[in-house]
Specification:
With 252 residues, this protein is α/β, with parallel strands linked by helices. It contains 8 helices and 7 strands; from the N terminus they run E-H-E-H-E-H-E-H-E-H-E-H-H-H-E. Bound molecules: 1,4-dihydronicotinamide adenine dinucleotide. Pfam families: adh_short_C2.
Length: 252
């Protein structure tokens, strides 16, 4: 894909699901990729496995709820590789709960990872792109635009609606710095996140299949293709927009 070879790109939450598929897609395109994920993730061994001795995949522990942690990784990437060309604010959590049952901790944790984490990821890495250019990709969701059913996800949906608008706000504000900001909005995607929800409520799966026009879950690599597009020069005219990868769900 045009313009991804030899670029340095950071993927938060890159050790699992959509993040890992994105890392794999970028490696195929010739990028140098930093998996930025929790210490407890399998990031180190995944990086070693993907590397096959080529030194193009690196793991740096991060917690996106901590600005200090994000700043440390951004500085380390610049020190080691000279520049940052792109960042994917992919780390996210989905806590399902009826609104009356939400406790303060889980609400704030969802905001902290999905919304505050997306903003401070964008800010921390885009600082190093000012003037030289770069691409920021945020991960939204069908839950940003629809009241998805039957799962109950007020906090999650609220964060994703905000993330989608954040892409527009930052894209416009940073355009003259040469930084493009876009979002990808996946439908329900075959990852550990959705597997956890399906395990808790197996009866939901049949409903999900009925709701999505293409009649199946989205594959992580299909989302990764859209992310790679926004990171690449193929999307040079796109800014502040969201591309849905949802099998047509958003149109129903
Ligand atoms: P996942 O649960 O499979 O992977 C999430 C990754 O984020 C994990 O590697 C985890 O360690 C990491 N992570 C979690 N908290 C973190 C933190 N505080 N700091 C750093 N890393 C952290 O999730 P999945 O499904 O791959 O989701 C990725 C993104 O896509 C999320 O933003 C999610 O909301 C979004 N999404 C997922 C959909 C799905 O159906 N799977 C649908 C729509 C959006």
């Amino acid at each position: 894909m045009e313009g991804l070879s030899d670029k340095t790109i950071v993927v938060t939450g890159g050790a699992g699901g959509i993040g890992l598929a994105t890392v794999q897609r970028l490696v195929t395109a010739g990028s140098r990729v930093v998996i930025a994920d929790l210490v407890s993730s399998n990031g180190e061994s995944i990086a070693t496995e993907l590397n096959e001795g080529r030194g193009m995949v690196h793991f740096m522990p991060v917690d996106v709820t901590s600005v200090a942690s994000l700043t440390k990784v951004a500085d380390e990437v610049v020190t080691r590789f000279g520049a940052i060309d792109g960042v994917v604010a992919n780390a996210g959590i989905a806590v399902m709960s009826e609104a009356f049952a939400y406790n303060e901790a889980s609400w704030r944790q969802t905001m902290g990872v999905n919304l505050d984490g997306a903003f401070f990821t964008a800010q921390s890495f885009a600082r190093h792109m000012r003037g030289r250019g770069g691409s920021v990709v945020l991960i939204s969701s069908i839950a940003a635009r629809s009241v998805v059913q039957p799962e109950k996800c007020a906090a999650y949906g609220a964060t994703k609606a905000a993330v989608e608008h954040l892409a527009a706000l930052l894209g416009v504000e940073w355009a003259r710095d040469g930084i493009r900001v876009n979002a990808v909005g996946p439908g329900r995607t075959e990852t550990p996140m959705i597997e956890r929800i399906a395990k808790e409520s197996p009866e939901m799966v049949a409903t999900w299949m009925e709701q999505v026009p293409i009649g199946r879950l989205i594959r992580p690599e299909e989302v990764a293709n859209a992310v790679a597009f926004f990171l690449s020069d193929l999307s040079s005219g796109c800014n502040g927009t969201t591309l849905m990868v949802d099998g047509g769900y958003d149109k129903t």
